[in-house]
Amino acid sequence: MDIHEKFMLRAIELAELGRGRVSPNPMVGCVIVYDGNIIGEGFHEYFGGPHAEPNAISTVKDPELIKSSTAYVSLEPCAHWGKTPPCADLLAKVGISKVVIGTVDSNPLVGGKGIQILQKAGIEVLTGVLEEKVRTQNIRFFTFIEKKRPYIILKWAQSSDGFIARENYDSKWISNSYSRQLVHKWRSEEDAIMVGTLTAQYDNPRLNVRDWSGKDPIRVVIDRNLKLNPGLYLFDGTQPTLCYNQTIEESSYQLEKIRLKEGFDLEDIIQNLYSRKIQSVIVEGGAQLLKKFIEKELWDEARVFTGNVAFGKGIPSPVLPGKVVKQYDVQGDLLSFWQFKS
């Protein structure tokens, strides 16, 4: 590992601390190095707050050293005014000697413009250091920018004999408490969480974060003809909820009923979520909805728990194409990760 990779790994590590709190911005970390030693570091901590670069600069005890230092930034410094000033301008202003960048930002508002600002100021720029790691870390951001849709994660638990629920739609409890806690952690990391009509009706899920610390995702439910009981947890007003239907368009506290065209499809919902700058969605069921996403090849990864309980008969689990990319044991449950391959 060369010296650039060493410090970029630290920048990536710092960036990770912002997971679940910076969307729709990307996670970014910054390390300032003088004479082989880190003298400042920071990361983008929350949406609307200072970016990684000013946070790192603010931790440098002797600002005079910055002029002879190198900044390692996981993503190209921004070049536009948003909720904060352009970071490329700040690096130029403080007179940093060199900037090493993990990957170029594919956002058209940046897209090489940050690098141009730095080079125009006489700053040496090196790009593409651990680029794949940075893109993987920010796969939600890059999917949103490049594919113009949210990053889609499918998730379910299945019995040891391959059923997602019993014949009466009951699915409690297939996975153990450790797996369920992990799911709550995942929820805190995504912008939205989606279920279909039957899952909402039979499971009455809360779709919030209870067994972990973090923000609740936006709840998304499909109810074409608005037949769901308004007394369900989904409509309790405790977190923002979007209800896609083909009947009415109305808003109340924490609940928005969104009318789409007659016979709307998943693509219509996904495009509406994209228009709302929702960068990622975790789909938690039921079987029909999950199968539709799979049939339309409208997913990026899947996370499947296989528990120890056997149902004998019931509603079959969805069938995923391709191969498992990794597996873990979660206190007796088998967790399999699948990745979509185009």
UniProtKB/TrEMBL annotation:
Residues that, per the record, bind Zn(2+): 51, 78, 87
Q: Which residues form the signal peptide?
A: none
> Mind giving the lineage of the organism this protein is from?
Bacteria, Pseudomonadati, Bacteroidota, Cytophagia, Cytophagales
All copies of the CMP/dCMP-type deaminase domain together span 2-125
Report which superkingdom the organism of origin falls in: Bacteria
What's the protein called, per UniProt?
Answer: Riboflavin biosynthesis protein RibD
Keywords assigned:
Hydrolase, Metal-binding, Multifunctional enzyme, NADP, Oxidoreductase, Riboflavin biosynthesis, Zinc
Q: Which PROSITE patterns match?
A: CYT_DCMP_DEAMINASES_1, CYT_DCMP_DEAMINASES_2
Kindly identify the residues recorded as the active site: 53
Would you identify the family this protein belongs to, as annotated? In the C-terminal section; belongs to the HTP reductase family. In the N-terminal section; belongs to the cytidine and deoxycytidylate deaminase family.
Annotated substrate binding lies at 171, 187, 203, 207, 210, 284
Q: Which pathway does it take part in?
A: Cofactor biosynthesis; riboflavin biosynthesis; 5-amino-6-(D-ribitylamino)uracil from GTP: step 2/4; Cofactor biosynthesis; riboflavin biosynthesis; 5-amino-6-(D-ribitylamino)uracil from GTP: step 3/4
Enzyme Commission numbers on file: 3.5.4.26, 1.1.1.193
